[in-house]
Amino acid sequence: MSDLNRFRYTMESCNHCGQCKWILPHRMSGWDFAEVCPVHHHFGFDAYSGQGLVNIVREVMEGKLERTDELADMVHTCAACGACDVNCKSVRDMEVLETIYELRHDLAQAGHLPDSCRRMAENVSAGCDPFGVPLAERFSWLPGDFRDDPDSDTVLFAGCSASRDPGPVLAAIRILQAGGVPFRLLREEERCCGGALWRSGQQETAGDLIRGNAEAFRKAGIRTVITVCGECFGAFRSIYPRFVKPGFRTVHISQVAAGLIREGKLAFRQDARPLTVTYHDPCMLGRLSEEYVPWEGEIRSYGLHVPEKHWNRGEFGVYQEPRDVLSALPGITVREMTRRVEESWCCGYWTGQADPECAAATADERMREARSTDAEAIVSCCPFCRTALSGAGDPLPVVDLAELVAGRLA
Amino acid sequence: MSLPRAVYAELESVVGSRNISEKEYILAGNRAQTPEIPFPHRSADAIVLPGSTEQVAEIVRICNRHGVRYVGTVSGGIPTAYATEENTILIHFKRMNRILEINEKDRYAVVEPGVRHVQLYPEVRKRGLSYTAAAVGPGGSVLVNIACTGGDHHNQYGSSRPTRYLLGVEMVTPEGEILRTGSLEAGAGWFCPESAGPSLRGVVKGYSGNAGHIGIVTKCAIALDRCKGPAETRSEGVSPHSRIYMDGGCSRVYVFNYSSIQDVGRAMLALGESEVGATVQKYFYLPLSLMMTASANEFWEKWGRFREAFPMPLVVHLAPHSVRELEYEEKILFDVIRETGGVRLPRDLEKWWEEHMDYFMIVSRLQSVLRLGGSWLPIKTGGESVRHLCDIGDSISGFIHDFTDTGKIFDAPQNYQIIPMEYGHFASFELLFMWDRLDPNSFRYMQEFCTVSRETDLKNHAHSMTAGGYGKAGEALGRLYCNCHLWAGRIREAFDPSFTMDA
Q: Fewest Cβ atoms closer than 10 Å to its Cβ: which of A209, A272, B163, B412?
């Protein structure tokens, strides 16, 4: 059951300092690209921000604000990208994003959530992935002659997006094969990671998927899960520990590639076309990918948490490895955007569940920032980012890191 | 209560339907009680987001026609940025966020209210310029700090108060007219705060910033200084352990500890006479300890060490324009420190500043002060001579123990700051304390502490600002006390008799 009261301390602590909306000083570069909250940027009202949403949760909890479908649509316009959370936690001990998640959970339990989110759960119940692809077709993209290592304790988790765009997973397979990494696919045993469902507030449905996957990993003796999708990576790290004690470690293909490059196990063509790129940090691979550590305790006077609480402040996301990989590719020049690493601007994909216009504006803004670097292409590590950014007006080519690497293998 | 339909429609016709809302969840975003204010905010009836001065003027005229109150707001970080009466709208300046001009030759910048320090500061620094960004955090509005609230910057030693950097102003009067002041009024540009006739700067700012001013400032020019230290900064790491450096060999931070505030004052004055240093400050060490730690638990773990290590730190940032000049300034500095009895802090503590040079630019970690729950109050804010403020600092230990030792408030005897400005010709003061909002008696304790503090100030011939305000100090002192607040009220009554403007 949802319990907004768990986040009362956060709700009562906000002083409206504005840090949830504005870039942190170590990334500041000027007037442009100084905002970090896509919905606040788009709508302008403070309600559309970490601060405003926390205020809204408080009024819902206190019975001052009614739970409605319209409120749910508004709450889901926020992509839950976590920029507000990281910024707030740079100076405060508050759980802004967890509070927003709990509001979504509360609204979903009361029957209020956008139709698109509701459909995700319905699709899962109907034996499909959240996007409506039947489980039987989940690996239809896999070449018939593909052979994996059925005895490996490492699984390459393809994810739901492979059904729509198998390129990044096929590229990941090439990288692993080139690097001599034994791995296997779960095929019919693989289900959606459950991350999107959990983040939409449908936590009970997500929990079923999560427990099912964890059990499938356990039965198959899986010790390492390699993901290609940033969303799956973040889900395994930051959501699974809420339901199960994961008996596996999660690594992203960018981390595997960086390791293989360090060990000299990947060789690249030297004649590849020179390309200037900028790197887009996916939220769930970056700031939202720290391992969730449950905390139950008491918040005493002056903020003392007893027992001591582990804080996820976005510091230990996967930021460096994708950059290391890009730096190692012959012919690739990297130009950084202002909003990068923990301050990355969200692609806006999940905003599209409630407000396609805001989602498009968010992607447009990211593309404008990418163009400001004079890059010829934008590289990312998440198929959802690729979908969102490719839909921006006048887009630069959006390239998946795994595909870029695989395409340049010798 | 909602606005009459006709009024809403009129406002909507000015700003467009997507820039006005009266939805409850939109209003909720701007009415929640904040931990430092012990009473709930009233809800506005609508929020409008104007995009231009002309739209602001039209909104004000509509409000006047229908007797609707209005409050202008940007970041919402101060108690007066909320509705206090029924039938009030918030005019939020999110969309008026342009930097209209940065004039490098005449050293000024022209901004709208929505421009934040984290946007303007790097723009001017790139050009080798700087300004006194008030210590409100990166998301604070430049215009509000300089034209309205007048908060002090923690690093104004070589400059002055932010309010003294106000140049030409464009504002909307309570009648809804657009007024331009200073050189702007004469069509001569933004560069000067004064023009023919009496100065209007006091009308814009009032005596105490937002508590006294009238009208809505929609654009203003602020004066810029040549920046001290390199224009380029370098950053490393990921939040919350990010670092910002000033490279180039001409930026150095030293921190000294003293056993007496009078000796600190002597050092400040001696350094000021030599015009050495970019920043000289006696900083409050409780906020400093919070800025140096990453969680409340870590703070409580280390507070004992901080308390012991630097109860009275004098922070000096040297940022001249050449290595030779730096050597000269260091020589003067160490002479002064020796003569005044300062002891240099351990290097590991001192190093924190050199890795957080944003502290000297936009005081960016200051919100860490709120980490202990957010219930805090800065009191005794005001300006006096360095010597007088040292006396005020000395007086605090005479009454604070009754509150700290009994747990009524959380503070420490030397936890106040003295920031010299104009090379020590003047200084600002602030005592910052916190209270436990989980304690139902905390509000009463806070009030008692403010009362005792104010009474002590009056005994010591100081008129610094403490909660309870000018009214209470005036009651205590009668005609001996400054009556600017009364005049500000009269002026406002004359210009805005129906009090449609509410902030």
A: A272
